[in-house]
Amino acid sequence: MSSGDRVTVLAALARDVELVAAVAGSVKRVSAIGPGTPDSSFASLQIQLTTTHVGSVRWSVGAMATSRTGLTLTLLGERGSVSLRVDDDSSNPVSTWQLASAVDGREESESEQTFDAAASTIQRFALAIATPTSADAPEVSTWQAATRAMEVVDAVELSLQKGRTIEVFQQQLTERLAFRGTMAAFGCGLLLLAFLAVVVIAILGGAEGMVREKIAPAWPLLLLAILAFFLLLQAIPLLAQKRRDKEPPS
Questions:
Q1: Distance CA 228, CA 87 (A)
Q2: Residues 36 and 113 in one domain
Q3: What separation in angstroms does the CA of 214 have from each of 143, 199, 206, 207, 222?
């Protein structure tokens, strides 16, 4: 990479993690070696990944002494290795890539090929529009794959802070899980609101003792109504499930 700042390096990592997952399987553990503070340079970042299909995967930032930037992917086997080199220049929209292999001490390399990312993106976008149903859509980058990649990036930052290996728990994104997260945030808000309500009620209680008149007599009913509404919201997934069961299969 041409820059070793945190944002640039982590953006490249998030892009490459999706490629690693496609080749080696889902990432299970992350161990990172590099700067301990976000303000430091990430030019020396090195990461050890454990995946489901490959025992060990290493990702590192290459030396930035040369002007060439790009990606090098090397797969090591029992008899040799295969390397893919992609030259990525920000000033040129068309990148070049080359495949080289070394098997039993014999090295071979194919001729350089060009790749236009913008044209390929337009073609994939047109193909996605022309696809009749989601079931026939090709297996390409999805929102769920992007969120899994970001979970690995978060685990890398946590590993740098803690100085140890971090387990990566990649959860399936479902409507029920999103609802639980929303309700958890809503419940924390209610706890904070209840704490503030206790303070306000204590102040009003002291004021009522001075004026000998109730200032807010309906506050217990209001608090009860809010809590009851929160409890009723918990039944939304059950109602949605029953409605989905009644719908005829498509």
A1: 60
A2: yes
A3: 55, 17, 10, 9, 15
Same domain, 161 and 183: no
Assigned token pair, 40: 């430091």
Range of the domain at 201: 175-246
Is the distance from CB of 12 to CB of 148 less than 8 angstroms? no
pLDDT in tens, 133-175: 655 555 566 777 888 889 999 999 999 998 899 998 876 666 7
| Contact indicator for 190, 226 with CB cutoff of 8 Å | yes
Whichever domain contains 93, its CATH number is 3.30.360.10
Tokens of 201: 């009620």
Decide if 71 contacts 61 (C-beta within 8 A).
no
Same domain, 138 and 239: no
Number of independent structural domains in the chain? 2
Whole-model pTM?
0.64
